[in-house]
Structure formats: C-alpha cells, structure tokens
Amino acid sequence: MSSTKVNGDFGTSNPLWFGSTFHPFENFHQLFTGYNNIYARWFLNTLFYSGTSAMIIVIVSALGGYGLSKLIHRGSTVVGAATIGMIMVPANTLVVPLFILFARMNLNGSIWSVLLPFLPSPLGLFLVKYYLDRNVSDEILNAARLDKASELKIFFTIVLPIIKPMLGTVFLLSFVTACNSYFLPQIMLNDPALYPVTVGMANWFGGQFQLIGIFVAILPSLLAFFYLQRNWQRGLADGSNR
After folding, report:
1. Rounded-to-integer distance, Cα 42 and Cα 216, Å
2. Distances (CA, A) of 119 to 96, 115, 116
3. Which of helix, strand or coil describes residue 17?
C-alpha cells in the first residue's frame, strides 16, 4: 500500500491503508529511473547473484546428494555428520575470515567476493541426500544397473524426476538467502555499481524510495515461490500414488 502513495500521503494518511491518490506505476518509474538508473542496476545484480548461486547449488546438491546416498557407502556417515556440523555454523561468523582470504587473493570488491561464498550449501546437500534415502529405493537402481544403464543415465532418467520437488525447495531457499544477504556484500563491495538491492537501499535510499524499493525487491522471491509450488504439489501427488 505504501508503494502506491505519493510523498505527501505518508504524513496524512493511514499507514495501513491507501493514500488519497493511487500512483504505483509513477512511483516504480521514478524508482528505476532516478539516480541515473542505479536501482535497476542493483536489481539486476541481485538477480544475478541469487539466480546464479541458486542454480549452481541445485546442481551440486543434486549430484552430491545422489553420490552420498547411493554411491558412497564407506564414510558416508562421517560426511553426513560433517555436513550437519557445517549447517550449524552461523554464516555471519565466516564473513571476516572470507574477507581476509579474498583480500589475499585480490578478489575483494569484485562479484566473485559475493558470489563464491554463496556456493557451498551443506543444507542443500543434506536435504537432497535425506530425500533420496527415503524416496529412491536401491532395488530400482540395481535393476537399472543390471540393464547396463550408466550412473549418469540412472541419475537423469530415474533419480532426477523423483527429486525435483526437493530441488525446487533447495533453489528457493538458496535464492531467498542470497536475495536477503546484507552483511557479506556490505563488507566485500566498495563499488555502488556492484551493490545488490539490500546494500544499495541501506546506503543510498530513504523514505518513500526505500519502501517502494523493498516492495520491488521481494517480488522475485514471491514469483519463485508461486512458480515452484507446482513442483511441490506434483511431488505430493506422486508420493501419494506410490
């Protein structure tokens, strides 16, 4: 509702209702064209950081989870326990060590200093492995191996269709986490042209522009949720059929 108001309505209208005028499109136009189109750049940066990291996490979690669940038998319990231990480490405690590490590698201030820390996802690996343990039987995989199917063919034709709902969950969690990240890019980046929306709005915007910017910033996460919920519904239906 605040994103539809003009600046004068904030002090005179009910904060939990619409203002005297309705100008959402004009407000969005000013948001994306003001300050030399800097918000549009931040928005695209956020989509790039979040989308790229989420896709890589999904790929690594799918392959790694399959390997831990169905291929690696000796030592898989130790690896699983280590994965759970890494999940318990708060992400913000790693920012300063990462800053020192990337400074030695001359990566501070680049997109890699923001993108690379997002890529390891112990949670995604654990979720996929847990899902595989309970939804993919070894008998089906052994039957496919008796038919001389390769592991890649087994993964793409048998395993991947079954774990799609979980991969959608991993993508959404990773995407939202990257979209909401503030402390890491705030420490790593010094060029406003590389800021994500969270850092850009905190350092540059205030008042009405900040409210409208927040509303626009949450739209990708909402769209991703509504799109991916079809996979969850399909997965529930498939599970009931089995």
Report:
1. 11
2. 17, 7, 5
3. coil
Residue 88 has what DSSP assignment?
Answer: T
H-only helix segments in 67-182 = 76-87, 95-104, 112-118, 122-135, 138-146, 151-154, 160-180
Cβ within 8 Å of residue 133, ≥6 positions away:
69
Q: State whether residue 204 is helix, strand or coil.
A: helix
Give the pLDDT confidence of 96-118 residue by residue, as tens digits.
Answer: 898 999 989 998 888 999 888 88
Q: What is the pLDDT of residue 240?
A: 44
Phi and psi angles of residue 72, each rounded to the nearest 5 degrees, phi first? -100, 115
SS3 136: coil
Structure tokens at 47: 């989509």
Q: What's the Rg (C-alpha) of the chain? A: 22
φ and ψ of 206, to 5 deg: -160, 170
- Residue 49 φ/ψ region, left for φ over 0, alpha for ψ in the -120 to 50 degree band, beta for the rest: alpha
Q: Which residue has the tokens 């996802």?
A: 121
Half-sphere exposure of 48 (CA within 13 A, CB side): 15
**What does the block give as tokens for 101?**
């590490």
- Of 127, 98, 128, the closest CA to residue 188 belongs to 98
Domains defined for the chain, CATH in brackets:
53-241 (1.10.3720.10)
pLDDT, tens only, 203-237: 876 666 777 888 888 888 888 888 777 666 555 44
Q: How many CB atoms lie within 10 A of CB 154?
A: 21
